[in-house]
User: Fold this.
Amino acid sequence: MATKVAKIWASGKAVVNGWLAIPSGFSAEVMAQCGFDSVTVDMQHGVQDYQSMVQCFQAMQAHPITPMVRVPWNEPGIIGKVLDGGAMGVICPMINTKKEAEAFVSYCKYPPMGSRSNGPIRAGMYGEATSYQATANDETLCIPMIETKTAIKNLEAILDVPGVAGIYVGPSDLGLSYGLPPKLDRSEPEILKIYEKIIKECGKRNIFAGIHTAGAKDAANCISMGFRLTTLMNDSGMMATYAKNAIAETRKNSKGIA
Assistant:
């Protein structure tokens, strides 16, 4: 059965993705009820580990979202482990070459397409042949991150790797790679030109471009450009933003507050 993300992409619409930096099943449960199409556990820059990822997945399981993970690096051990733990999509940072993209896909897929070891402890019955193994290669979403000058140089070769379902732009690292300040909401002409290239090349191959955004306005702008998956900040960022705004409004409209 296709994931919700795959179904939305097939319909021609864009996916709204949540992002979990906080290692809490309760936080994940709250986010999963908010209307996201997919929710990603961030094991690279978030305060997440494998155990907290499993807890987040368990908390989200009752809700109609696609569970995804951003792994710390392009390494077979952790990629296989998050898939065994129930991830249906894997976002992998710093994929810069065709060779790295091929390795990433191989780590995600069972033979003969890849080299993933059999043992889907949560995703399917451990060590047994079930319907999961029969469909996992088709359903698992391999999403390389494009976030450096080198990756842009090798973009077409990366996109041509069989098994790549989409790519995910990291605006902060992409900006750093071009000598610009690290931020999510980008308006520099050189970066916008890169975005146009990414969207165009993805479209040629029926591959879908995703991006991390600074919030609702930035996400809407990116969708209008042609991005088909947008992440709205992360849970900790949303909490901090709302708290700061609420405190500022309270101080503005109330007397007797320090």
